[in-house]
Amino acid sequence: QVQLVESGGGLVQPGGSLRLSCAASGSVSNIYLMNWYRQAPGKQRELVAGLTSLGSTNYADSVKGRFTISRDNAKKMVYLQMNSLKPEDTAVYYCNVMVIGNRDYWGKGTLVTVSS
Fold first, then answer.
1. Per-residue pLDDT tens for 88-99?
2. CA distance 19 to 68
3. What pLDDT shows up at residue 73?
């Protein structure tokens, strides 16, 4: 079992920055893939960024060059640094991890609102 708790969401003006955090607890040694997803009102949940245990990353085209996923193994944290935010980045952001055995876990999400 893995428990995930996101934080760091809020209201930010267009062009601003936010850093989302995801605190993991439980069987974290079994995690091999960490992701951030988002779901905007009326839209399907989409993958924003992914980070493997070997350090490989991937990003949605819409956030490339603006968002960065990272982790701190010692603190059991995953981060999403979001720069140059746009109104279309407004969504609930979810932390997701995959563990050995191909089971995945989700946090409850944190709301990001980009508006002037």
1. 999 999 999 999
2. 9
3. 86
The 8-class DSSP code of residue 85 comes to -
- In whole angstroms, give the CA distance from residue 84 to residue 114: 10
Give CA–CA dist 69/99, Å, rounded.
18
* Residue carrying structure tokens 């603190």: 75
Q: How far apart are CA 36 and CA 29, in angstroms?
A: 19
At 81, phi and psi to the nearest 5?
A: -85, 125
R_g over Cα of the chain: 13
From residue 60, alpha-carbon distances to 57, 64, 65, 89, 109 in Å are 11, 6, 10, 12, 18
| Residue 87 pLDDT | 97
**pLDDT of res. 102:** 86
In order, the DSSP letters of 15-79 are: T--EEEEEEEEESGGGEEEEEEEEE-TTS--EEEEEEETTS-EEE-TTTTTTEEEEEETTTTEEE
